[in-house]
Amino acid sequence: MPRSKVKLAFIKDNKERKNSFMKRKEWLKNKLKEVSILCSIEACVIMYSSYEPELEVCPEDNTAFQNVLNAFLTKSPMERRKFLLNQDSYIKERNNKIK
């Protein structure tokens, strides 16, 4: 049976919002691991939230994270720019490609 579509909206209840974040964070970690294995790539995620005092890096294996970070930092500033998108610039770039 298919899941119902999730309505994306701000969760007002703080406890419910924190629980949702924790579940989605675990889902994201699992997907990162799956993509890394299936595509034979090194990938990492850096997460920060107001619910936890420190940054969380996934995967926890420090060498994998360092490999990804070093691969990014060895690129020229022009090449790095291709990988640095926030939501606004991504939408603008996508809209420009569609036109």
UniProtKB/TrEMBL annotation:
GO molecular function: DNA binding; protein dimerization activity
Keywords: DNA-binding, Nucleus, Transcription, Transcription regulation
GO cellular component: nucleus
Chief location: nucleus
UniProt domain MADS-box: residue ranges: 1-61
PROSITE patterns found in the cross-reference section: MADS_BOX_2
Subcellular location: Nucleus
InterPro entries: TF_MADSbox, TF_MADSbox_sf
Protein name: Transcription factor MADS-type1 family
UniProt keyword annotation of Nucleus present: yes
Record's keyword annotation contains Transcription: yes
